[in-house]
Design goal:
The chain is of the alpha+beta class. The protein is 20% helix and 26% strand.
Length: 213
C-alpha cells in the first residue's frame, strides 16, 4: 500500500512539533523531582541557595535543612521555607524561583534512527513521535509498534499500532496523541502475542520494552 505521508512531510512534522508551540506553564505548577529552584532571602543573602528536588521529593537547604518540595506550588514551598526559617530569623522575607523544570517527554526505543528520550514542546501524535526520532529504520516492523503507558505505579497498558496503516490516506484520521511518560517500541520482527496490561514490577517500562525488541 502506498503511504499517504512522504518522508519529506514527516520531516516537516518533526520540525513543527519541535518549534511550532511555545511551552506554557500552569501558574499553579507543582514541583517535580529533578526540578531546580532558587531560594533567595532579602535581608540575609548568605542563606540563598540553588538546589534540585531530589528523587525522594525533598530539597536540602541552608538554615532550614530537609524539606518536602515535590507536589507543592512555588507559593506553598515558599511558605514552608519561611515557616522553618522563622525559627531562627525574625519574620524572614523569602522568594522561591523556578530555575529549571523537568520537561515533559516520551521515550522511543528500537528500530528508529534516533532512539531515546524526546522532550515534548507541544502536542505530539504517534506518527509525529516516530518522525521526531528520525523515522523508521529499514529493519523496522511498521505494522506492530508497541505503546507502553503507565496506568499506575505497578501496571502499564500495552497497545499495538499498525503505523503503516495510520500513515495511509484512509488511516491518518486514527493517529493518536502521545502522552508524557509514554514509551514507543519499534520492533525488528513481528510480535506473536501482546497482553493488554502488564505488571511493571522491578523492570519498569525500560525492562518491558526489551521484551519487544
Amino acid at each position: 500500500m502506498k503511504t499517504f505521508l512522504s518522508a519529506a512531510l514527516l520531516t516537516v512534522i518533526a520540525v513543527e512539533a519541535q518549534t511550532g508551540a511555545l511551552e506554557q506553564r500552569d501558574p499553579h505548577y507543582r514541583l517535580q523531582r529533578e526540578d531546580k529552584i532558587d531560594v533567595q532571602y532579602r535581608f540575609t543573602p548568605e542563606y540563598n541557595a540553588s538546589v534540585s528536588v531530589q528523587p525522594d521529593g525533598y530539597v536540602s537547604l541552608p538554615l532550614v535543612g530537609e524539606l518536602k518540595a515535590a507536589g507543592l506550588t512555588l507559593d506553598e514551598v515558599t511558605q514552608a521555607i519561611r515557616a522553618k526559617a522563622n525559627i531562627t530569623l525574625n519574620d524572614p522575607e523569602v522568594m522561591v524561583l523556578l530555575r529549571d523544570y523537568l520537561k515533559p517527554y516520551f521515550v522511543l526505543a528500537g528500530e528508529v534512527a534516533r532512539p531515546g528520550r524526546v522532550e515534548m514542546h507541544g502536542p505530539v501524535t504517534l506518527i509525529e513521535a516516530i518522525a521526531l526520532g528520525g523515522g523508521f529504520k529499514d529493519t523496522a516492523k511498521r505494522t506492530q509498534v508497541v505503546l507502553l503507558r503507565k496506568t499506575s505505579g505497578e501496571m502499564a497498558e500495552v497497545k499495538v499500532f499498525d503505523v503503516r496503516k495510520l500513515m495511509s490516506r484512509s488511516g491518518i484520521g486514527e493517529d493518536i496523541p502521545v502522552r508524557p511518560g509514554d514509551m514507543l517500541v519499534v520492533p525488528r520482527n513481528g510480535i506473536s502475542k501482546v497482553e493488554p496490561y502488564v505488571r511493571l514490577a522491578d523492570a519498569g517500562l525500560y525492562g518491558l520494552a526489551a521484551k519487544y525488541l
